[in-house]
Amino acid sequence: MFAQTVYDLLATCAWKEFTINLMVLMQLVEMQIKHNHLPTVLPFHSVHYPLPKEIVRDIARSHSNQKLQDVMRAEKVKEVELKLFKVKEAPSSPQSPPPKLRIGYVSADFVNHPTADLMQSALLLHDTSKFEIFLYSITRNDSSMYRQVLQREIPNFRLLPNAKNDKACAQMIADDEIDILVNLNSHTAGERNGIFAFRPAPLQVVYLAYPGTHGASYLDYNVVDMVVSPKEHREMYTESLIYMPHCYQTNSFQDLYPEILSSSCLPSRKDHGLPEHALVFCTFNRLGRITEHIFHAWIRILKRVPNSVLWLYKHPTMAVLRLLRAAREQGIDATRFVFAGPMMPKIEHLKRLTLADVYLDTHIYNGHTTGSDFLWAGVPMVTLQGDTFPSRVGASLARAVGMQEMIATDLAGYEEKAVELGNNKEALEEMKAKLKAARLTAPLFDTARWVGSFEDALTRMWERHARGLEPEDIFPIDPGAKHRVSSLPVAGV
């Protein structure tokens, strides 16, 4: 309960109370780790806190090991005996064409969720002459367009019922003879990590939802890039790493939201309560990512950029009052803030993002899906590159769209970049034009290119496994630009 209370304090902008209680909590966690006890802090909460990356790694590792121990205790077996997959026989003839690799993806988020939004195109772009794709959904059909398209277009779409325990679900996967199984949840809501502890596939990969190591011996690979996970951070992972050539994150913008590239049918600022001639800074991140130090930086930016406003999500009343009080104490009036309306369909959300001038990224936990949303909307970001995976995603996105100038390495530089864009209309317009043009050519939005690299990684990890070799770090090829006229099914069509 105490650990949850600390996270709730951060998520409601009670920064003073959060800081005091976090110190107490971390003393407890360090003692728990030292004595091999399960930390009371959840891994997903830990990545939002100003903690050393080693502590974040150890929290994830402890929770993953506890899951494994629970399974071993229940089954009364050793870890080496947790292997539900069957060893496949070699082809009968050396001349026989290699069988298709069977790739399975397990997620609670094949519904109306950012994971489905980001992953849809990649899942549909796999080379079906070489790969057979299986999707295992932990959640029931929410009738969203994402779910409808994936169920319709992926023949091997399976439901893992909540009524079935982890072992039964793992057996369902093993019965499909999956070669490589991808965990798209890790330490996030809805996870069924116990399924992976049973080893339903000979190779198991963790990707996308959780920004860091899963910390489990039953997961072999983690998908990263050299920005979010530079070589000097290698010890922060228990898995072998797949270093994607550009950005680790894939997306579906080109297929799902091409109309954002056109200036027609976009809303007006008046439609969203924004002043027509103001400089609009924007940050549409969750409250748990807005820390005191980054909010005070935003206040200083507003002070230095006349006729500017900050556009945020409309958060719970108590949190909004705390934000406005913190601003007022620093001499900024409530009229400098605009709170967006309710959640809306993704396409409408992207359209309203085009009304912003500059996206101000959060720091300890950057905008991940949010960051790529703003870039596709043609809004330059200012991001502060940190020392952990979640604090380096903004830099990875910026580099993959060819906008390295948007990256700051300290708070002073972050503020200067934002102020320069806010006060220099010509520089801002040049950056907007550069970004909008980059959307047509940048690797970040070239999903087919990302898939080509990922398939190379899948092939190489399987070839190592087939030769009896242990997993090792992989640097997949960059197949080059694959921009295309979309032929994929669009949600709702």
From TrEMBL:
GO molecular-function term, one example from the UniProt record: protein O-acetylglucosaminyltransferase activity
Keywords, sorted A to Z: Coiled coil, Repeat, TPR repeat, Transferase
Domain of life: Eukaryota
Sections of the chain in a coiled coil: 411-441
GO BP, one annotated term: protein O-linked glycosylation
Pathway: Protein modification; protein glycosylation
Ranges of residues in domain O-GlcNAc transferase C-terminal: 13-260
Protein's name according to its UniProt entry: O-GlcNAc transferase C-terminal domain-containing protein
